[in-house]
């Protein structure tokens, strides 16, 4: 395996870690906080509240750098279109995430704890979850595209190996 192919494989791995973490949050975290806000939001609050931000802040730049390097390394190969689609799609998802998903999630989860369930927060949480599942589905499709491109990384396609 060449260095270039290793970088592409690491990009696919990093992208898969993003998806795995998103799936984990949708299976283990979201069902708990969306059920009865603000009562159910206590998991995010206090000194020992859940704080996923450090993970997401670290993984996105790593994934972007690896995808960018893969785009550059495979620019003149059959894999180019696959990694380019994945990289551009991921960048679009990140822009939408920072414009809508992160601010809305912070607004919901940082709501002052209370003993009364707020129907408007439940509605917002359900909408956030639905749209986030659409986003996750798109990311899974992008991951499949990236992995298909990785299968195209054969030495006979690029004389520079």
Notes on the protein architecture:
By secondary structure, the protein is mainly α. The chain has one domain. The protein is 71% helix and 0% strand. It is elongated and about 60 Å long. The N and C termini lie close together (9 Å). The model has no long low-confidence stretch (mean pLDDT 93).
Which band does the percent of strand residues land in? under 5%
- Element order: H for helix, E for strand: HHHH
Q: Structural class per helix/strand content?
A: mainly alpha
Output the radius of gyration. 19 Å
Measured as a percent range, the helix fraction is over 70%
Main sheet record: none
Tally of separate domains: 1
Assign an overall shape. Answer: elongated
Give the overall pLDDT as a whole number.
93
Low-confidence stretches: none
The CA-CA distance between the termini, in Å, is 9 Å
């Amino acid at each position: 395996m060449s260095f270039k192919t290793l970088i592409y494989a690491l990009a696919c791995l990093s992208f898969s870690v993003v998806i795995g973490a998103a799936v984990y949050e949708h299976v283990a975290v979201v069902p708990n906080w969306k059920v009865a806000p603000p009562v159910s939001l206590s998991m995010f609050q206090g000194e020992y509240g859940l704080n996923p931000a450090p993970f997401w802040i670290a993984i996105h730049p790593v994934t972007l750098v690896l995808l960018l390097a893969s785009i550059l390394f495979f620019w003149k190969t059959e894999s180019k279109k696959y990694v380019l689609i994945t990289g551009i799609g991921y960048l679009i998802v990140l822009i939408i995430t920072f414009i809508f998903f992160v601010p809305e999630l912070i607004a919901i989860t940082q709501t002052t704890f209370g003993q009364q369930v707020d129907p408007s927060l439940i509605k917002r949480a359900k909408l956030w979850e639905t749209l986030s599942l659409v986003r996750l589905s798109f990311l899974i499709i992008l991951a499949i595209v990236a992995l298909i491109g990785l299968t195209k990384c054969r030495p006979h396609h690029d004389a520079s190996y």
